[in-house]
Amino acid sequence: MSIILSEKEVVYVVSDSVGETAEFVVKAVATQFNGGYVDIRRHSYAEDREDIEEVIAMARQTNSIIAYTIVIPQLKKYLDQRANEEGIMAVDLLNPLMESFMKRFKKEPNHQPKLMRKLDDEYFRRVEAIEFAVKYDDGRDPRGVMRADIVLIGVSRTSKTPLSMYLAHQGFKVANVPLVPEVSPPEEVFNIPRNKCVGLVITPDKLNEIRKERLKALGLRSEANYASFERILEELEYSEKIMKRIGCPVINVSNKAVEETANLIVDILKSERSR
């Protein structure tokens, strides 16, 4: 048997941050009581007693519940006190779990508001960087070269795409451009600051080995021109000329893991930018 509230009830959601967490919890509970009859009114960034008094006055008029996520001790104490004085039901959504953390981990909380928002911002920054890396992978759109935090250039199979994605997960917007003798790189590559660009090189033997494995995975003959030493030497010589023209730092990726190369890229560019 479903429970239907006879009239629309009001729940005030109060937070010293955005209040998304509290609103989500209230909505989850409201669905068990036919959520369409609950009017959730959010009051974000409560910072002082005046903010609390404003909510108390409205909750008193409508005989409402106050659900809150407040981590500033003095503000939480004041809300509890005023709600008790006015006979208003106020529910602390964080405190039971906060106390459990304190007991289990033997640590005190920071009592700082907006920390979740900082985490959210970092998360969305990474998502944006990943989308950027996908959009501007393999020189698909030269406009990405000018918009990127980091631009990677090099011949095929020098780990440009894996490095772009790894760095994107760290929040860097990365574009990568393949260097092929038959195709001139976009003009944008020659106009970016050297402290935004890194050239990736590899030994001919290692590249030959990698390309043969790639051809095998594709079901193609390993003797194809793509993996021939003559072709590889031609491409590497061409890429070296382009990198010298740009004047960018160069990393040899021959025997390096993606993580190691990515860390080197970040360190090198930090050094370049600090000059």
Give an overview of the whole structure.
- With 275 residues, the chain is α/β, with parallel strands linked by helices.
- Helices cover 48% and strands 14% of the residues.
- It has helices at 20-30, 49-62, 73-86, 95-105, 115-135, 143-147, 160-168, 204-217, 229-246, 258-273; strands at 9-15, 38-43, 65-69, 90-92, 150-154, 174-178, 197-201, 250-252.
- The strands form two sheets. A four-stranded parallel beta sheet has the order 2-1-3-4, with helices on both faces. Strands 6-5-7-8 form a four-stranded parallel beta sheet, sandwiched between helices.
- Helix 7 crosses helix 10 (258-273) and helix 8 (204-217) packs across helix 9.
Helix content: 40-55%
Q: What share of the residues does DSSP label as strand, in percent?
A: 5-15%
Overall average pLDDT: 89
Give the N-to-C terminal Cα separation: 71 Å
- What can be said about the biggest beta sheet? 4 strands, parallel
Overall radius of gyration: 29 Å
Got a strand count?
8
What structural class do the secondary elements suggest? alpha/beta
Count of alpha/pi helices: 10
